[in-house]
Request: fold
Amino acid sequence: MPANLTAEAKGLWNKASQAKTVEEKIHALQEFLSAVPKHKGNERLRAQVKRKIAILKLEATERKQRRAGGRGEGWFIQKQGAAQMVLIGQTNVGRSSLLSRLTNAKPAIASRKFTTTRPVPGIMNFEDLQFQLVEAPALVRGAADGEGWGLQTLGLARNADGIIVVVDLSEDPVNQLDIVLAELEGARISAKRSGSNILITRPKEGGGIRVMVSGHLLDCNIGNVQTLLAEYGLSNAVIRIVGEARLNDIEDALLEATTVFKPTIVAANKLDIPGARKNLEALSQKAADLPVIPVSCMTGENLRQIGDAAFGALSIIRVYTKEPNEDERTTEPFVLPRGSTVGELAKRIHTELHENFRFARVWGSTPKYPGEKVGLEYVLGDRDIVEIHTR
Reply:
C-alpha cells in the first residue's frame, strides 16, 4: 500500500492524471516517481508507475513514427460499441480465427507462430448490441516483465472492459490458462472478482466529490474518503465502492496501484479435434468460476455462445427510453452497469434531465406493474423502458 505520501507527491500524481498529452503524462509520472519514497511499502506502486511510463513511451514512439510517414495501426485502440474485449492467449491457439468468425475483421491467419504483431479490432454483433473485439499479439512467459509484446498486450487488457482468454483444446489447455492468468496477475489484472471493486471517474459536468457505497467501509467513513480524494487535488470525482474496502484500498485505486478486475471468459477452441472433449473436462475443473465456452472455429460449433457469455460477464444492462405520451421506445439502448439507477440514466442522457427531474415511469421486468411511477434511486434491469418527466 502507498505509505504516507507527501503533499508534494500527491500533487504530482494529480498533475499526471490530468496531463493532456502522452509526453506531458510521461514527464509528470517521472516527477511523481522521484517523489515517492523508496521503501518496501512502496515497491508495488513504484513498479506500477515504471510500467505505465514504459507503455506510454512505446505509444509516444509509435505516434512519432506515424507522423513521420510510418504505416500501420498503433497499440492503443479507441473503444467502440457497448464494450471492448481483448482476445489474449498463447501463439497458434486460434485467436485470429475466432476474431474472423465472430467479427467483420480480416486478420492474417497462418500456421506459423506469432503471426499477429499488432492489435486487430473487429465488431461482433450480439442481439441489439455491438461488442468490439481486439485480437492482441500472443502472450509468452515473462510478458508482465516485458518479454515479447508483453507490456503492450497487457496494457490492452488493462484498458479493455473485459477479456476473452483463448486456449487450444488439442494441446494442454490447463497449462495455457495457468500461464495467461499468471501473466495477468503479474500485471495486477485479475480475472476473478475480489472482495471489493473500486472505480473512480471524473465526470465533465462537475458536482464535487460523490461517494457511492454498495457494501461496507471498514476503517473509514464517506467523509474520510472525500478528504483523501481532496488531498490528491480532486475537487470533482465519483467513486463507486462495491464490497468491503479500507481507506488504503481506496488510495491504491486512486493511484492505480491496485489489482484491477476484468470480467473474463475462456474460449476453448478446436473442439473438433480428437481428444479435445477430454481436455475440456480438465479445463472446466481448473477454470472454476470462469465461464468456459467450448468452440470450434473450423465447424462454427457454439460460436454464438460467446456473445451470451460476454454479456453476462460484463455485468451490463440495456435500458431503452421513450418520450412521454409516445408509444414507441428507442431502438438503440443505453448500456449501463448492472445496478444502475434512473438518476444515473438521466445524467447519462443529459445533466439538465437530472436537474429538472420530477419522476419516471418504467416498463419491463423490474416494475411492480407496467408504467410504475418511480424516483431517481429506482434500480433498473435489463431491457427496461424508461419515460422521464421533468419540471
About this structure: The radius of gyration is 23 Å.
